[in-house]
Amino acid sequence: MLDYKLVEAFASVLGQGGFEKAARALHLSQGAVSQRVKLLEEQAGCVLLVRSTPPVPTPAGQEMLKHFRQVKRLEADLGQGLGSPGQGFDTLAVGVNADSLATWFFPAVDPFLDAHAVLLDLSVDDQAATLGLLKAGEVLGCVSDRAEPVQGCRAAYLGDMDYRLYATKSYKMKYYRDGKTLEAAEAAPILIFNRKDVMHEVLLGRALGARPELRNGFYLPSSERFAPTIATGRVAGMLPDQQAAPHLERGEFVDLLPGHVFTVRLHWHCWNLDSGRLAGFTEAIVRGARSLLIQRP
């Protein structure tokens, strides 16, 4: 049997990003927290935590963290079922991609948050990487571009987001005066979310017949600032239709690659737990997303 005071200390070190912050959160001395983590590792018979800055879990530690969060989720549901929901708010850890967070996510889940005493602990990553957060036990559920559920989880289709490459008319005249060529694409400055972002390369490759070697990337890890930055005329960039629509209506943007669309199919993944709270949130996000996103077979 696990001593959950020890497991709580271990999870707090990871959640707070260090032993000192975990000690403050648990109202213990730093030495007491360190001792609890050491005792847990002795009970488990393996190292659970890499003592780096910040600390990170080993593969065994990831499994321990996942187990702890599942137990905490079930305990919270049990309290509600027994008529003693406890004080304060319930917290759901969720992974989501930045573009979803900037567009449809909150409109989809706002009714649920208005009706329940629930707080969200959001982790933001690329839609291809959020599933790793779920596998590691860092979140209860996530928005991902992967359709197949991982072991111990379930998945539901949310909808599609269509992206196009947008720019101002002045940008198009400056960098694509002689038409859409591989050489023009390689020389033109382009907005990129981060080093994981290859959406623009894929779309340009489809349109031009070969992927360009982009030499002038402007890296901006903020979905909210993409459209305003494109509007300056300095760069082109990929935008979902939801964010581009008002700029198109005002005639500020043009589609640099008409007829070429990059579609991201989004799915909701969550642990396969008998949790009423998680089931309620799952129902809300699926229903909300399907009312806001493009639905395709």
From TrEMBL:
Tell me the GO molecular function terms.
Answer: DNA binding; DNA-binding transcription factor activity
Q: Does the keyword Transcription apply?
A: yes
The protein's UniProt keywords, in alphabetical order, are: DNA-binding, Transcription, Transcription regulation
InterPro entries listed in its UniProt record: ArgP, LTTR, LysR_HTH_N, LysR_subst-bd, WH-like_DNA-bd_sf, WH_DNA-bd_sf
**Source taxon at top rank:** Bacteria
- Domain HTH lysR-type residues, every copy: 2-58
Q: Which family does it belong to?
A: Belongs to the LysR transcriptional regulatory family.
Under which name does UniProt file this protein?
Chromosome replication initiation inhibitor protein
Tell me the organism. Answer: Pseudodesulfovibrio indicus
